[in-house]
Amino acid sequence: MEKYNIMAVVINHRSNNAPKVQEIFTKYGCNIRMRVGLHETDNTCSEEGLILLQLTGSKEEIGELEKQLNDMEGVRAKTLSI
């Protein structure tokens, strides 16, 4: 049975943090099977966003991705393996 690795990433101050988060995602691009981005919009873009990732790869690779994201101020990442 395949294990599913899902990571939730909350980004505060999106306009400042998004470029660095994208750089990290690009580094791990071969490990990302699916990416969904959500953010609230009224009449302007929200400064907080939620990104959901379905990941593949070793436990170590996924752990390093999570660590790099959590090392950023204003970014929180958590992985669920089911």
Automatic annotation (TrEMBL):
Domain of life: Bacteria
Record's protein name: Iron-only hydrogenase system regulator
Organism name: Acetivibrio saccincola
Source taxonomy: Bacteria, Bacillati, Bacillota, Clostridia, Eubacteriales
